[in-house]
Amino acid sequence: MPQQTKIFRVFVSSTFNDMKVERRLLREKVFPFLEQFCRERGARFQAIDLRWGVSEESQRDQKTMEICLNEIRRCQNLSPRPNFLILLGNRYGWQPIPSAIPQKEMDQIQSFIPPVFRELVEEWYWLDENAVPAEYVLQPWGERIKEYREWEPIETQLRMVLRDAAKKANLAQPAQLKYTTSATHQEILAGALDPPPDVARPESHVLALSRTIPNLPSGEQAMDYLDFVQETPDPYSQTQLGQLRKDLQTKLKKEHYIEYSANWVKDAIVLEDEQYFIDKIIRHLQSVIESELQQRADEDEIEREARYHEEFAKSLTTYFTGRKDCLDRIREYLDNKNNQRVLALVGASGSGKTCLMSRAILDAKERNAVLVYRFIGANAGSSNIVHLLSSVCSEIAQAFGTDLQSLLDDAQKGLYLDTNLLIPLFRKCLELANPAKPLILFLDALDQLSDSDNAGELRWLPRELAPHVHLVVSCLPRLEGALHDTEVYHLPIMPRKEGEHLLETWLSAQGRTLTDIQKEQLLAKFKTNGWPLFLKLAFEQARKWCSYSKPANLPDDVPALIEQFVSALETEHSPALVSTAVGYLLSGKNRGLTEDEILDMLVWDEDYWRYFLQHSHPAHRDEIKEAKKLPVVIWSRLFLDLAPYLTERDSYDERIIGFYHRQFDEILRLKYLQDEKHRHRRLAKYFSVGPHFFDDDEQKQPN
Fold first, then answer.
1. Which of 486, 428, 478, 421 is nearest to 449 (CA)?
2. By the 8 A CB rule, do 142 and 56 touch?
3. Of 162, 289, 295, 454, which one has the fewest beta carbons inside 10 Å?
4. Where are the alpha helices (DSSP H) in 141-180?
5. How far apart are the C-alpha atoms of 698 and 180, rounded to whole Å?
């Protein structure tokens, strides 16, 4: 989704327990300063520290690295500069085993795995031929293992066996990394040493802070600060860490590679100069942020609105396929220069109206005409009829070399643009079209208009268009009665053949396929339903099916598919987390909340906060309770599973997260908002206190 508010989202990469002091300083001193600094400049700052407040037990689903790398990518997409901060100590850190190994690679190393360990590898790595290319997938703990201490010796054995085999097989260096590097090292590769080519140069914004402890002991008392193997310091980890430091120094140069010291005092560390540590980070990030804010291009309101909807349309046409008859019908309408009626695409929720409109808009760009379009509901303003008509009229007027004030009568100039003025003004703007410069206007989702000014009655919609104007709209069947003198086209269901092609397109983009039985099972269900939304929801489940998965029982309709999905979510994440997070998302203004607000509300809700503290790891409970913050990884894990069904949209210059489709809102509202007033009261209390509600102990919980 396009971004309105400038967000600076910085991923903090470090090891676990040895960086408690630094994390406290970041949490108490650095991040609050940067949050305030950005807030005063109309921006937002988010720190993503997936290590804080959790233990290695959180990897029981074997998704740890997937979540970390996904969050790094989100930071890079949302915040080109800065987006990555590194803390290095004396620990190389946890070294995960690969979550997946390509089949060809496993074939290469298989002969180097000692026979005595082959059964162990086969027990934990299963061949998934639904991956393209096929791969061996590391299995979750399941019910076999309850705690990390039971998994640790198995993981250690697998790590040593696979690492040794990979080296003996002489795999290429990039392939060896997943066998030989720590989690922190893999993060640093993705965020600083070898990021994707579309990411801003790391040396222009990444900061690494490297800590030395001259008097660090090498015995068990330093267990949290060194890597140990069989109760002795691990030379392999120290060698790897040394090379990692050299690589960072070479990449980032001395300006962005800062060394600092700590002393070992009574079985813990004390930084030599805490203020030096704090100042270095603040000055660096503040400087980069200021530079980015200064470079932000000034857009007028019309340009920004048009850009937003252009990017929205692009996001929906990436994998568009089929719908030839529907597109031909729209082309015929646009080709007819004598047709002065509005064309209305009418279809049920989930029939694919918005994607079809997006594709038609893309096609219309090839025509010699002024093209204006809006996706109502895609951002907050577009749902209000006054904002919508003002925005559309302004863009049309600008395209024809004039402005709205010039189109008003003398008595109207300077007056507030309400619907009484905007409806005739809208018609005047349409009349600007001419043979040399025709006008094409698309308005998607009329049903998403708010109730204000009786917008849903559609009296503002012209019954007869001015010459050289074409207007295409879409809506749900319930508005069809208000479409007077309009040419109505009912969207047909998607044929099975088109659905199969679309399914294969989506799967291919994800590097996945399905077995013949799985594909037939899904398409048979789709044939009885026929709506693209059903296919999309079924695909999101099916892309996770492995070739060895048990046959899945897909429901027959969209509501049942959504129910099945959230039931699985509750099993994975707990009913308390899912119901609380989803409930507040649905209760937010304009059907969403910012990511900061979601995290805050999971703490602000005293019922969930009490539940979370009771179920959090004892080693971190007191620290979390004192900080009064939810570890961001709790939300990140849930977000990873919810992401296919969420969208990020503008709401009055804030980037909010909400459910993409109306049916999710309707079904989940019934499930999780039986007492909606309770949620609204809590949100009202939260917003009335403001962004600093955790600063005052007296305001930590609602009355």
1. 478
2. no
3. 295
4. 148-168, 173-180
5. 49
User: How many residues appear in the chain?
Assistant: 703
Distance CA 12, CA 490 (A): 51
The pLDDT score that the predictor gives to residue 16 is 82
Is residue 482 classed as helix, strand or coil in its secondary structure?
helix
**pLDDT score recorded for residue 418:** 82
**DSSP secondary structure code for residue 81 in this structure:** S
* Residue 485 three-state SS: coil
pLDDT digits 0-9 by tens, 139-148? 988 778 888 8
- 33: nearest Cα among 297, 275, 206, 256: 275
| Whether 670 contacts 574, CB under 8 Å | no
- Alpha carbons within 13 angstroms on the beta-carbon side of residue 189 total 13
d(CA 373, CA 377): 13
- pLDDT of 699 > 50? The answer is no
pLDDT-derived band of residue 58, with 50, 70 and 90 as boundaries?
low
State the pLDDT at residue 442.
97
Identity at 402, one-letter amino acid code: T
> In sequence order, what are the beta bridge partners of 88?
210
3-state secondary structure 571-633: HHHCHHHHHHHHHHHHHCCCCCECHHHHHHHHHHCHHHHHHHHHHCCHHHHHHHHHHCCCCHH
At residue 68, the 3 state secondary structure works out as helix
Give tens-digit pLDDT for 155-209: 999 999 999 999 999 999 999 999 999 999 999 999 999 999 989 999 999 999 9
- Phi then psi for residue 528, to 5 deg, are -75, -15
On the question of a cis peptide bond just before residue 82, with omega within 30 degrees of 0, the verdict is yes
pTM, two decimals, is 0.84
Longest CA–CA separation in the chain, Å: 92
Provide the token pair at 627: 């900080």
* φ/ψ bin of 53: left (φ > 0), alpha (ψ from -120 to 50), beta (otherwise): left
C-alpha distances in Å from residue 600, one per residue of 467, 650, 684, 692: 53, 20, 13, 11
Report long-range pairs for 663-668 (Cβ below 8 Å, ≥24 apart).
663/349, 663/350, 663/533, 663/558, 663/559, 663/562, 664/562, 665/586, 665/591, 667/559, 667/562, 667/563, 668/562, 668/566, 668/582, 668/586
Tokens representing residue 400 in the block: 């024809």
Burial class (CB in 10 A: 0-12, 13-18, 19+), 677: exposed
DSSP string, 273-334: -HHHHHHHHHHHHHHHHHHHHHHSPP--HHHHHHHHHHHHHHHHSTT----HHHHHHHHHHH
Six-digit token pair at 624?
Answer: 């979390």
DSSP E strand stretches across 97-205 = 100-102, 125-128, 135-138
Distance CA 692, CA 522 (A): 49
Region of 572 please: left (phi>0), alpha (psi -120 to 50) or beta: alpha
Given a cut of 50, whether residue 304 has pLDDT beyond it is yes
Report in angstroms the alpha-carbon separations of 533 from 183, 196, 618, 665. Answer: 37, 32, 43, 14
Q: How many CA atoms lie within 13 A of 68 on its CB side?
A: 27
Contact 699, 689 (CB under 8 A): yes
Helix (H, G, I), strand (E, B) or coil at 414: coil
DSSP assigned state of 470: E
Which is more confidently placed, 464 or 59? 464
Question: 418: which DSSP letter?
Answer: -
Give exposure, 447-470, as e/b (b: 16+ Cβ within 10 Å): bbbbeebebbebebbbeebbebbb
β-pair type (207-212, 257-264) = parallel
Sign, CA dihedral 621-623-627-631, equals negative
